[in-house]
Design brief:
four-stranded antiparallel sheet; elongated
Length: about 575
C-alpha cells in the first residue's frame, strides 16, 4: 500500500523532504529557548548581570525568529507537498478508471468511485500534511525535551517519563477502539453519495411521482448512519483531552512540589525549575499532537486502502503484445461463443453461439428482455471478453486488435444515450475530434437530427445541458447516432437507439443508412418489427441462444417467436415484451 501511494508523490519529493527539515530546525530552536531562559534567570537576574541578560535575550530573539521562519516554511512546503500528492492521486485514479473495462467498473459503484476521488483523497491529503509536519516535529521535540529534562535533573525528569508511558498506553487503547468505527464510515459515505446522485439525476421522476418525502427519508437514513458512526468514534476519542490535562497538571504539580524541595535542600536553581516546567508543557503538548496524528492516520488508513483498491485493480481487458491496428472490413463471426457477466454463475448469458455476418449487411436483432441482445453486441466492440469460443471482426479475433483501433471501427449507440455538457458541435466531435462543421452537419442529416437543430436559436452552437436534459429523448437518440456516424465505422451498432423516434423518422434514418453508408455493417436491435423487417437478415434471440436467423419472410414462415411478435404488433397490441407478458 505504501509503495502504491508513494509512487504518486512524484514531482513533490523536494517539498516532502524540505518540510521535515524545517520542522526539525524549528524543534531545535524551541529546545534552545528554555535553556537560554534559565541562563537569564540564574546568571543574569540573580547575579544582576545586565550584559548577560541583554546578550542572552538577543540570542533568544534570534532563536525565536529562526523557529518562526522554520515553522512558516514548513507549513508552506507541507501544503505544497500534500496538495500536490492529492492532485496526483486523483489523476492516477481517474486515469486508471479510464482504462477499466465494463467488468472492472461493475466491481465499483459510481458513488463509491466519487467518494474515493473526493472524501478519501482529502483524508489522505490531510494525513500526509500532518505526517510531514507533526510526525517529525512531535516525536523529535518529545525526545529532545526528555533528554534536556534529564540533563537538567534526572530525578525530576522521571516524572515526565512516567506521564509519557501512562498517556501513551491510554492513547494506544483509544486509537485501537476508534479505528473500528472509522473503518465502517467510508462505505457509508458511498451510500450517501449514491442517494444524492440518484436523486439529482432523476429529480424529474422524483417530482413527477411526488416522492420527495421518500427521497428525503432515504437521505436522512444514510446521513444518520454516518453521524452515528462518527459519534461513536468521537466518544472514544473524547477521553483523550481529559487524560492529557490530567497528565499535564499532575506533572506540573509534582515538578513544582518536588522542585521546590530540591531548591531548598539540594541547591537546585530557580532557572532550572522554570526550564523543567517549560519542557513539561512541551512534552505533553507534543504527546497531544501525536494522539491527533494517530487519530488522523487511523482515518486515513481506511481511505488509503480504498484508494489502493482502485489503483491496483487490473484492467480485465488488455492490448495484446503485438496488436493489429487495421480492421479489414465489417464482417463479423461468432464461433461457439459462451459468455457470462459472473464467471461463477451456473448459467451463462450467451450459450454456444455461432453465426456469420457479411461485411455491409444490415442485420436486425430482436428478442425479449434478458435474451442477450446487448450482451451480444458488447462482445463485438470488446467491451467484455468471451469465456469460451471467439468473436472475429474483419477476419481477426477481436482480442488481437488494439482496443482503440477496434472501437474506432465499431461504433456503438447504446440503450442509454448520454450527451455531455457543451455545444452540439462539441458533443458530435466525440465521434471525430477533427471533424469539420460540414461533416458534423452531414452526419446529422443522415441521423435526421439536422431538422430540429436548425430550428434551435443557436443551431449547432446550442448548449446541451449535462445528460442532454434540454433535449427530448428522440432528439438525444438522433444526436448520438450522428456522433457514432462521424467515426466512419466499418460496423455500426444501434442498441434500441431509435425507440424514442416516430416510425416515419425511423424509416428515414434506415433509408439514409442504406443509401449513404452501404459498405458499413449495421446491427440494429429493436422491439418494433417495422424497424428491422427490411434488414438483409434478422436474428431472433431467446434465452441467450439463436432461435432464428433469416429474412423477414423466412422467419414469418418458419419461426414461431418472430411470427407471434409480428402478428401481435400488426394487430396493434404492442411490442415483444408486452406480447410475452400476455402469453
Amino acid at each position: 500500500m505504501l509503495k502504491t501511494l508513494g509512487a504518486q508523490i512524484k514531482e513533490y519529493k523536494k517539498p516532502s523532504l524540505m518540510t521535515p527539515v524545517f520542522m526539525i530546525l524549528e524543534v531545535i530552536m524551541e529546545m534552545i529557548i528554555p535553556l537560554l531562559m534559565a541562563s537569564i534567570i540564574d546568571k543574569g537576574v540573580n547575579d544582576g548581570n545586565m550584559k548577560h541578560i541583554l546578550l542572552t535575550g538577543i540570542l533568544m530573539t534570534v532563536a525565536a525568529l529562526v523557529a518562526l521562519f522554520a515553522g512558516l516554511m514548513g507549513a508552506v512546503y507541507g501544503a505544497k507537498a500534500s496538495t500536490g500528492f492529492a492532485k496526483n492521486l486523483r489523476k492516477a485514479m481517474f486515469d486508471q478508471i479510464q482504462s477499466f473495462s465494463f467488468a472492472n467498473i461493475d466491481r465499483f459503484s459510481t458513488a463509491g468511485l466519487v467518494t474515493r476521488l473526493t472524501t478519501d483523497v482529502t483524508n489522505i491529503q490531510n494525513a500526509y500534511q500532518m505526517m510531514l509536519r507533526m510526525c517529525f516535529r512531535a516525536p523529535i521535540s518529545l525526545v529532545v525535551a526528555l533528554v534536556m529534562s534529564f540533563y537538567i535533573n534526572a530525578r525530576l525528569a522521571l516524572v515526565y517519563l512516567g506521564a509519557v508511558i501512562l498517556l501513551g498506553g491510554c492513547l494506544a487503547v483509544i486509537v485501537a477502539k476508534a479505528n473500528r468505527h472509522f473503518r465502517q464510515v467510508f462505505p457509508r459515505y458511498d451510500e450517501l453519495n449514491a442517494s444524492v446522485q440518484e436523486n439529482v439525476t432523476a429529480i424529474r421522476v422524483v417530482k413527477a411521482f411526488v416522492r420527495e418525502e421518500h427521497e428525503t427519508e432515504k437521505f436522512h437514513k444514510a446521513n444518520m448512519n454516518i453521524y452515528n458512526l462518527f459519534l461513536k468514534a468521537e466518544k472514544v476519542i473524547s477521553y483523550n483531552p481529559p487524560l492529557m490535562m490530567f497528565s499535564l497538571y499532575g506533572s506540573i504539580l509534582l515538578i513544582s512540589w518536588l522542585g521546590a524541595g530540591m531548591i531548598v535542600v539540594e541547591g537546585m536553581t530557580t532557572g532550572e525549575l522554570m526550564s523543567l516546567l517549560t519542557y513539561c508543557m512541551n512534552i505533553l503538548m507534543n504527546l497531544m499532537m501525536l494522539s491527533m496524528i494517530f487519530v488522523m492516520m487511523t482515518m486515513s488508513i481506511a481511505s488509503a486502502e480504498r484508494i489502493c483498491e482502485v489503483l491496483t485493480e487490473e484492467p480485465a481487458l488488455k492490448n495484446p503484445q503485438e496488436p493489429v491496428y487495421e480492421v479489414a472490413d465489417g464482417s463479423i463471426e461468432f464461433e461457439h461463443v459462451q459468455f457470462g457477466y459472473n464467471t461463477t454463475s451456473e448459467e451463462p448469458v450467451i450459450r454456444d453461439m455461432t453465426l456469420s455476418i457479411r461485411s455491409g449487411e444490415t442485420i436486425g436483432i430482436m428478442g425479449g428482455t434478458g435474451s442477450a441482445k446487448t450482451s451480444l453486441v458488447n462482445l463485438i466492440s470488446r467491451l467484455y471478453d468471451v469465456q469460451e469460443g471467439s468473436v472475429r471482426v474483419g477476419g481477426r479475433d477481436v482480442r488481437e486488435y488494439d482496443l482503440e483501433a477496434l472501437r474506432n471501427q465499431v461504433a456503438v449507440v447504446l440503450q442509454k444515450n448520454v450527451l455531455f455538457s457543451g455545444t452540439i458541435y462539441e458533443n458530435l466531435r466525440w465521434g471525430d475530434k477533427q471533424a469539420t462543421d460540414e461533416e458534423c452537419q452531414e452526419a446529422c442529416r443522415l441521423a435526421c437530427a439536422d431538422e430540429f437543430i436548425q430550428r434551435m436559436p443557436e443551431g449547432y452552437n446550442t448548449y446541451i445541458e449535462q445528460g442532454g436534459a434540454n433535449v427530448s429523448g428522440g432528439q438525444k437518440q438522433r444526436l448520438c447516432i450522428a456522433r457514432a456516424l462521424l467515426k466512419k465505422p466499418k460496423v455500426l451498432i444501434l442498441d434500441d437507439s431509435t425507440s424514442a423516434v416516430d416510425t416515419a423518422t425511423d424509416a428515414r434514418i434506415r433509408q439514409a443508412f442504406l443509401t449513404q453508408i452501404p459498405d458499413t455493417t449495421k446491427l440494429i436491435i429493436a422491439q418494433r418489427i417495422s424497424s428491422i423487417q427490411d434488414a438483409d437478415r434478422i436474428l431472433v434471440l431467446d434465452d441467450g441462444r439463436i432461435d432464428g436467423f433469416g429474412t423477414h419472410e423466412e422467419l414469418l414462415a418458419g419461426n414461431a417467436i418472430y411470427r407471434e411478435v409480428y402478428e401481435s404488433q400488426t394487430r396493434g397490441s404492442g411490442d415483444f415484451d408486452r406480447m410475452e407478458g400476455e402469453a
